[in-house]
Amino acid sequence: MSTAETIIQTRTFENVKQLPETNKKIATWLSFLLIPLSGLITDIYIPSMPHMAQDLHQPEHSIQLTLTLFLISYGASQFITGSLIDSFGRFRLTLFSLVIFIFSNLVIVSTRQIEMIYAMRIVQGITTGFIVVAKRAFFVDVYEGEKRKHYLSIMSIVWSSAPVIAPFIGGYLEKYFNWQANFYALAVYALVMLVLEWIYSGETLQNKRLFKGVQIVKDYRFMLKDKSFGWGIAMCGLSYGATMVFSLSGAFIIEHRLHFSAVVAGYAALLMGLAWMTGGFIGKALLNKAFLPKLKISNALQLIFAIAMIGMAAFSYNIYTLLAFAFLVHICVGFIFNNYFAFCLGRFPAMAGMASGLTGGGVYIVTSIVSYSVVGSLQPQNQQGLGCSYLITGVVSFLILHLLLRKVKAKTG
């Protein structure tokens, strides 16, 4: 038996509601509605960050840390959640995680202690890890062949809808209510999804995998030996890290330096989400084009736009030039992410949960390290600083892509 062929128990789950064939379509829609949860959690309160800092009497970096802690815990949790849902099923763990997630939001709105908010953001990262990993694995469980490939690509686009919708909603919640309204909204959303999941969804995992620590390590080692898979995780993390740079610094630049309102900051974040989604749609349209060459072109454009953004700042700097260049950069990184994320998720169909967990976990760990390190070291305060942040992530992506291309040419040459 090879390393990849972990011992499997062939019996299905007893005393657990199975997904009825008649509910397959609605369960698919519910999965699509839960996939963007991680994006909703990160983006809905972005326009509120400056006011959150003022209300809690905290410096900017302390509020930015609430986002970073979520990213780290969400990423780290997925290294184990993938194995757990492969061993104990998707359905019950998803329901339990939704309950805990609802509770964590209610704690956040009722406290003024930043340490408690940090703790609840970590809890949210872990519970969201269970929910999203299970729903990503759903498509591998239920669909095969071209349908699976189709849904995995669509899934990435659906996931990118959260950065479009969330800050738009968050900006108005901040304007008419307060920063706590964002977390009330998340609790209500999770409650609705909990009820719908309970009624219409069910277990999709047909065969259990034994939960053994040694075997899990062997499986992860097997997957990471696939260099294209490992580099793919790094590329996804760098691409999403570029967008998180804007999430961490954009609202502060727009509200504190350019003196616009939280609603304007929300619209700006919405625009970045549209750019990310546009990159995803372009990636879907070019799905059958040669893989690495199209990514190389997108990365080259990313570097060109970042350099132009820095250069233009010397002649013209306002909210329009800031957002125009950021929009172009986000299209490029959205394109790269869409292609590589779908590739990584479908790479090991026999270990769908583990592949989903390792991919998601690796991506968010890389994202959190890249985004917080870049923002922490450069502390972007304007268009030039933001452009430099984009340039750094683009240069690292450039080096990885060229390393990959060189290895591919060496194998085929």
UniProtKB/TrEMBL annotation:
The keyword Zinc does not apply. The keyword Membrane applies. It is found in: Membrane. Keywords: Membrane, Transmembrane, Transmembrane helix, Transport. Signal peptide: none annotated. It is a multi-pass membrane protein. Pfam families: MFS_1. The chain crosses the membrane at residues 26-46, 67-85, 91-111, 151-169, 181-200, 229-254, 260-287, 299-317, 323-345, 357-378, 384-405. Its main location: membrane. Residues 27-412 form the Major facilitator superfamily (MFS) profile domain. It comes from the Bacteria. This is MFS transporter. The lineage of its organism: Bacteria, Pseudomonadati, Bacteroidota, Chitinophagia, Chitinophagales.
